[in-house]
Amino acid sequence: MGFYKVKCKKCDEQWEVMVPFTDLEGMICGGRDYYDRPVQWRDTPEGTVENTEGCGNLVERIVELKPFAIAGSSLDTHGVDNVNGYWSPSFGRYFKNKHACYAHAEANGYRAVSQREADDALGGQYNNLQKQDEVGKTYSENLKKAKGDKVEAAAKTFVPQNMQDK
User: Is 61 strand, coil or helix?
Assistant: First the structure.
């Protein structure tokens, strides 16, 4: 059973009926349902409902598309247990898809790099870390030579040679 909007093919009268879908095919304008109740009614301006007599011709179902609004920009369920989404470990969040992740990255100043560029950047970082390790070793040696005097060890390590006291 369901509510269906129907229209008479002859008199163009429209109304709603509550009948099984199979009964729609043989329904006539002004007919009665299984319980002998009129299946045609109309709301009056006073707010009451009146039964109307029909012309006796066949009726057809009116299919209307109901308007609906989509909240947000899509029907995707991204961000919910990784359904239809893309988890970016770089940003630590969900995106609609990989393209949305790349667009977010470019909008925030990140850019895609080639493997060669990435290797060069990592090589440069490695060299900087090696230099820092050398400075740390030098400081440790100077600290031993200064017998634990941190100021003297720092002065010998971080002050240029031409500015040190001799």
Answer: strand
